[in-house]
Fold this protein.
Amino acid sequence: YFLESIRPEIRQYLIESDTEAVPFSRQHRSLVYQRAKNTDDTVAFGTKRDVYATGYKFAAHSLWPKVVPEEKRRIVIGGPDCKQPYSAALLNISAMSYGALSENAILALNTAAREGQFFHNTGEGGI
């Protein structure tokens, strides 16, 4: 009965890995504890996760990007009963703080969105 009563603590401190747990992993709990203590919460130079494990997903740069056919670059939003279906691009510009960008950067993003015919979320609450 004694071991059964301290089972959660044994699992938390001796068996559990840093990335598993419900609802929060040890990594997330440690981050919260460090921030609550107002101590440095950064882990420099990479990750503790096994990025070579089977099934690990990540985006990788390529010197030779794959050519995607035009018909696979967009998706139609709206089913057969939709009166005004919309052809949306799969890649778009996400919301960001425009106060942190120069005027030329904002113009470049706006121009690219117009020429590429894709969504541009200004993050300003408007269209």
The radius of gyration is 23 Å. The first strand starts at residue 74 and ends at 77.
